[in-house]
């Protein structure tokens, strides 16, 4: 099976070709491009990310582009550091950066309906922000999307040589440390002392050609949303911030969702990668996601759960969605799909957990992370719901350990290490304890988690779905609030990628 690709890497969704190598990341299919990252870092939770972002913006030389679902210039970036609160707020930091550097331009592109939501938080409209800001600091809204669609990417590109991409919006209610205290005095919305709840999130940072590729994507979005064409920044070398490197000289794949709109064809690389991951899983798929509301993915998981020697699936979710509308759309779908999956789970290999803080307050899971065996790590903006697969714009980045790569063992260890780092955070133990528990349990992540769960304090608790009212059952059955937007490729993807299962080693 073959597909044609245009100059931007967009492919027709008519078929899925068989991979020609032992890889799940296939440009034009499960990803857009694969580029080398000189350095790659992962930020677990927003406290360190925001502090690093502040540092990187103030060091920028030519251009900073923010591509976001939501944006709030009033938030503090590094509230743990000394100094005046006003000087630490995002808006003043951006203004200070452009005033200190006459060569610097900063652009902020936000989803248009996100701006409407911002008005409910008493944030100044974009037009006022532009009037109050220096000429080289520009705020814009992006209206170029289908009805009901959202621009959901969370990307920041600095000088086309550093790029952040993942699940963390540069807005209110995102800041938290990995302690996820029940009550943290610095965890509150701007200009209020009312404390917000614990919030878990993940994003990544890359330099080198991978950052340039994300810069290409960000500039394409900027032109689509504003009509202004931006040339690449060519004459700036990456200034790596003071942050620990996860991997060096590693290939990074960029996967997208782009809806069919305004003459652009549907791109659903993210959905195809989801299906490829499930098809190729040998032992374990670990997932952190805001929702569990995509029937196609749930059916693919159920298919694998029916195999006697199939993989385990561990999913982390928040206890409930944030807004009334999300609760009606996503929580109801989760109940329905959980029933589907659990009926298929005859070998007891599926779990859905909610993390809780020390006082057993639920931690809101906003992260979008997938870890396949010891093979693939994906961090992105896409959720496990229908709109992230075909209606919204999304951006995920992945690394993969390839058979025969001289650094295969190093990358496999890093992938597993990140899984254990995340689970250690949720279970209140060190990552090494998670790894040791998995080994004691013969490689079973489900049994390892059960051995580390605690009845009190910080831990993971099994999610128990509530009973649905008649209206909620109707919404779950009809998918009225979150309809499918892509063709079903599970059987073709399973055939193409199912043979790419590799036994976990080491």
TrEMBL record:
Positions of the PLD phosphodiesterase domain: 147-174, 361-388
One biological process term in Gene Ontology: phospholipid catabolic process
MF terms in GO: phospholipase D activity
InterPro entries on file: PLD-like_dom, PLipase_D/transphosphatidylase, PLipase_D_fam
Entry keywords, A to Z: Hydrolase, Lipid metabolism, Repeat
Keyword NADP in annotation: no
Catalytic activity: a 1,2-diacyl-sn-glycero-3-phosphocholine + H2O = a 1,2-diacyl-sn-glycero-3-phosphate + choline + H(+)
Keyword Protein biosynthesis: no
Residue ranges, annotated region (Disordered): 1-22
Record's compositionally biased regions (Polar residues): 1-14
Domain of life: Bacteria
Protein name: Phosphatidylserine/phosphatidylglycerophosphate/cardiolipin synthase
Source species: Geodermatophilus saharensis
Organism taxonomic ancestry: Bacteria, Bacillati, Actinomycetota, Actinomycetes, Geodermatophilales
């Amino acid at each position: 099976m073959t597909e044609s690709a245009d100059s931007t890497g967009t492919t027709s969704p008519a078929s899925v070709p068989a991979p020609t190598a032992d890889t799940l990341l296939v440009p034009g299919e499960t990803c857009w491009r694969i580029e080398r990252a000189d350095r790659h870092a992962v930020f677990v939770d927003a406290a360190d990310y925001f502090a690093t972002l502040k540092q990187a913006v103030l060091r920028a030389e030519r251009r900073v582009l923010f591509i976001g679902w939501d944006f709030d210039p009033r938030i503090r970036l590094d509230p743990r550091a000394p100094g005046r609160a006003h000087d630490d707020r995002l808006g003043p930091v951006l203004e200070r950066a452009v005033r200190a550097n006459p060569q610097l331009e900063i652009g902020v592109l936000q989803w248009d309906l996100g701006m409407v939501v911002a008005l409910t938080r008493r944030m100044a409209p974009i037009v006022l922000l532009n009037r109050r800001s220096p000429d080289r600091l520009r705020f814009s809204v992006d209206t170029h999307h289908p009805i009901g669609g959202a621009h959901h990417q969370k990307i920041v590109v600095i000088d086309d040589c550093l790029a952040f991409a993942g699940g963390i919006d540069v807005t209110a209610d995102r800041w938290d440390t990995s302690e996820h205290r029940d009550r943290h005095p610095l965890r509150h919305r701007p200009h209020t002392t009312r404390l917000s709840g614990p919030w878990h999130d993940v994003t990544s940072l890359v330099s080198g050609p991978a950052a340039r590729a994300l810069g290409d994507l960000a500039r394409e979005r900027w032109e689509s949303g504003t009509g202004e064409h931006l040339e690449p920044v060519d004459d700036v070398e990456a200034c790596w911030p003071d942050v620990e490197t996860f991997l060096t000289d590693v290939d990074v794949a960029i996967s997208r969702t782009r809806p069919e709109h305004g003459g652009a064809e549907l791109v659903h690389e993210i959905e195809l990668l989801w299906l490829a991951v499930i098809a190729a899983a040998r032992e374990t798929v670990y997932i952190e996601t805001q929702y569990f509301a995509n029937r196609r993915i749930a059916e693919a998981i159920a298919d694998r759960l029916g195999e006697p020697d199939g993989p385990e699936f561990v999913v982390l979710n928040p206890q409930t969605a944030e807004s009334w509308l999300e609760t009606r759309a996503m929580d109801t779908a989760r109940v329905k799909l959980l029933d589907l999956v659990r009926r298929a789970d005859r070998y007891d290999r599926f779990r859905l957990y909610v993390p809780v803080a020390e006082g057993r307050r639920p931690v809101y899971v906003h992260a979008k992370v997938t870890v396949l065996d010891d093979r693939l790590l994906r961090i992105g903006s896409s959720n496990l719901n229908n709109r992230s697969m075909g209606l919204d714009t999304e951006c995920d980045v992945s690394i993969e350990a390839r058979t025969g790569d001289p650094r295969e063992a190093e990358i496999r260890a890093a992938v597993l290490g990140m899984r254990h780092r995340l689970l250690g955070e949720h279970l209140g133990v060190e990552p090494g304890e998670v790894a040791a528990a998995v080994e004691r349990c013969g490689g079973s992540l489900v049994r390892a988690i059960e051995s580390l769960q605690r009845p009190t304090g910080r831990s993971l608790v099994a999610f128990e779905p509530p009973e649905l009212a008649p209206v909620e059952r109707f919404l779950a059955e009809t998918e009225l609030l979150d309809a499918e937007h892509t063709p079903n490729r599970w059987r073709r993807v399973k055939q193409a990628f199912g043979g790419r299962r590799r036994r976990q080693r080491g």
